[in-house]
Amino acid sequence: MQQILIADDHSMIRKGIKLLLERRLNCKNVAEAESCNGILNELKKTKYTHIILDVVFSDGTSLEIVPMITRCIGCENNDLFHAACRDICRCIQAV
Hints:
By secondary structure, the chain is α/β, with parallel strands linked by helices. The chain has a single domain (4-94), classed as 3-Layer(aba) Sandwich (Rossmann fold), CATH 3.40.50.2300. It has four helices and six strands, in the order βαβαβββαβα. It has helices spanning 11-24, 36-45, 62-73, 88-94; strands at residues 4-7, 30-33, 50-53, 56-57, 60-61, 79-82. The strands form two sheets. Strands 2-1-3-6 form a four-stranded parallel beta sheet. A two-stranded antiparallel sheet has the order 4-5. α2 packs parallel to α3. The two termini are 13 Å apart. Mean pLDDT is 82; it is low at 76-86.
């Protein structure tokens, strides 16, 4: 079963992506995080198969936390998406 985490500091972007995933792709398990700390907290609670990341957050950048993310999820069975908001449509198509 897919577990998807959408990480973006803009709630409208998160909600829009979540709606697309749920309505168009019938994804059921979609969570959200708004900060680097929020991402790491979510990864402690749930094992995600897909992560859609923005680049810049209020408490850091995704580039700074990618090493921590890969340690948390163990990339062997996961797809890690790293995208700026302008590239988010490509991420949706890949999911």
